């Protein structure tokens, strides 16, 4: 399908992939840039094609940022691996059920969750600045159980719908388990890679992926993901927190508008 796009649309898709990769590497939520770009650039594609192609671009970016975070932050794999495995299982189940669930029905709920997350983050300015683990060394089983629950819940959401998955992972790891934003972002990238992989396990056999478009966007997502991860590591948790609030605000505006159109249309 790329052959039928003019140069301006190819540039548009490439820039969207670059921006999405950067945002996703820092705090998650690149899908709210990438998926709308696919909708605009490929109006004739079916919803499942757009979702599947978006996952190709996303997994290429999350692979790069996951490796970069792992090399530079060295996240504790005793939490990251179980989190990712639970996220994989949740996303696999969610993607399998996605065709049964209306996206429109989720918009008001997602909007309420995002407003709550943003308000909580702004009300606690020191949250995520320092790492203060809950359920830590004295209660490792509770820590692991909480990580598994986060992985399964957010992973299921990503399989069913997806936008904001990375940010939900970051928020849950910071607010529930007490990680700093930088450490939380590193673990979130590993888990987000797992959710993207699980969704593709469902979508690829259906022939839903537009490979040429996905690989173009994915290549640019890789560059954005690499740059975003390096910037986040260099600037630290304070920068990531600011980015987190900005991205959440964008989520609220985007989903709030969609909800308004849905209710008044």
From TrEMBL:
Membrane-crossing segments per the record: 80-99, 105-123, 144-160, 166-182, 189-208, 214-232, 239-257
InterPro entries, alphabetized: TM_pro_TauE-like (IPR002781), TSUP (IPR052017)
Residues of the signal peptide: none
Sorted UniProt keywords: Cell membrane, Membrane, Transmembrane, Transmembrane helix, Transport
Membrane topology designation: Multi-pass membrane protein
Location of the protein in the cell: Cell membrane
GO cellular component: plasma membrane
Pfam families membership: TauE (PF01925)
Family from the record: Belongs to the 4-toluene sulfonate uptake permease (TSUP) (TC 2.A.102) family.
Protein name: Probable membrane transporter protein
